[in-house]
Design brief:
The protein is an alpha/beta fold and 340 residues long. The protein has 2 domains: 5-160 and 252-291, D-Maltodextrin-Binding Protein, domain 2 (3-Layer(aba) Sandwich); 164-249 and 293-338, D-Maltodextrin-Binding Protein, domain 2. The protein is built from 14 helices and 13 strands. The chain has helices spanning 15-23, 52-67, 85-94, 104-108, 127-135, 137-148, 190-198, 211-217, 227-232, 258-262, 266-300, 312-317, 319-325, 330-338; strands at 5-7, 28-30, 39-44, 72-77, 99-103, 153-159, 164-168, 183-186, 202-205, 222-226, 241-248, 252-257, 304-307. Strands 1, 2, 3, 4, 5, 6 and 12 form a 7-stranded mixed beta sheet that branches. Strands 10-7-11-13 form a 4-stranded mixed beta sheet. It has a two-stranded parallel sheet with strand order 8-9. The chain is globular, with a radius of gyration of 20 Å.
Length: 340
């Protein structure tokens, strides 16, 4: 028996946007009976299925389905199946996509949201400091600001993807001076570009989907990514040198379009918020093992891993970045750094 579904666009839009929404569904309200879900939400992710962040998204989707007794289903589209990072944020803002796992770095470039502060280089002392901020009052304030800033997005919870480190094609990076003149891939974000410039390297902006081929062809000399992403995307095969400098430890955020959010009942909003909290705890428990497993597998693959133990020169090099980007957020930055 065939079931008929009616797709409802969650905003009054015209022209090209309406045409886009007709091709890209937002909330899908199921008009059928029986065990079919009433609401289907599309959730985008750029990483492959075995990545810790993708697995966290799936865990979140499973909890939502359980707590809603199957009424709400979240479909995970991983590995950039629905587009790229920049496209996902735009789709969220107009309601053409329901959910996306974003990152503070990219969000910094969208508007003057407080969450962008969390992408500043060497902001967190360690993992405990990272979670003390994310789990505490500061984190709650920053998460709420995503919606309050007028971004048309709602932040449900923070996740940990791990600190970002540098990968290179031809030689290891043992000192910040080794980066001078190298072309390092960056996402489309001025903050990250300026972090790369501060090391003496040249940022090259490109889509995440193009990074592997760019490393392979020599279009760039390196890139930067957390270790789980470095391993799961197999970047080590074309950039076998990995330098653990932890230049930024920006949190990921489970985001939902504000257009989608407004069309959910209070009960369903609470289900998503509760499931997000559970997903955060899952992520927190799993990230350390995921990183450890990635490093062990990289060692077996003969990847040359360099640990930067003294980061003082790297931190000093980032002072111009703080001067350029702290702006109105200086008090918030100090509040984060001083949290014990």
């Amino acid at each position: 028996m065939a079931f008929r579904r009616m797709k409802i666009v969650c905003a009054v839009l015209t022209g090209a946007v309406t045409a886009l929404l007709s091709a890209c569904s937002g909330i899908v309200l199921d008009q059928s009976i029986g065990s079919e879900p009433e609401i289907i939400l599309r959730y985008a992710e750029v990483n492959p299925s075995d990545h810790i962040i993708t697995r966290t998204g799936k865990y979140f989707a499973d909890r939502v389905k359980e707590m809603s007794d199957g009424r709400i289903e979240i479909e995970i589209y991983d590995a950039g199946k629905l587009g790229n990072d920049a496209q996902y944020y735009e789709q969220l803002r107009i309601g053409a996509l329901d959910m996306y796992r974003g990152n503070a770095i990219a969000l910094e470039g969208i508007s003057n949201m407080e969450v962008g502060v969390m992408a500043m280089p060497y902001l967190f002392r360690d993992n405990d400091h990272f979670w003390k901020v994310c789990d505490g009052e500061i984190g709650k304030e920053i998460l709420a600001d995503i919606q309050e800033s007028g971004s048309n997005m709602v932040g449900l919870c923070f996740l940990d993807e791990g600190a970002r480190n540098i990968m290179t094609v031809d030689a290891p990076i043992k000192d910040i001076s080794d980066l001078k003149g190298l072309k390092i891939r960056s996402m489309e974000d001025e903050l990250l570009c300026d972090v790369i410039r501060a090391t003496g390297a040249e940022p090259v902006v490109m889509d995440y989907a193009d990074v592997y081929s760019a490393l392979q062809s020599g279009a760039v000399d390196g890139a930067e990514n957390p270790v789980c992403s470095y391993y799961s995307n197999q970047f080590y095969k074309v950039a076998p040198y990995y330098t653990v400098d932890a230049h930024t430890h920006s949190p990921s955020v489970i985001l939902i379009s504000e257009i989608t959010w407004k069309h959910l009942s209070d009960e369903d909003k609470n289900i998503l918020l509760t499931a997000a909290e559970m997903a955060k705890e899952y992520n927190k428990a799993e990230i350390e093992d995921a990183e450890s497993n990635a490093y062990n597998k990289l060692i077996k693959e003969k990847v040359k891993i360099t640990q930067i133990d003294d980061i003082s020169k790297w931190q000093e090099a980032m002072e111009p970045v703080y001067e350029a980007y702290a702006g109105n957020h200086r008090l918030l930055i100090d509040k984060i750094k001083n949290l014990r």
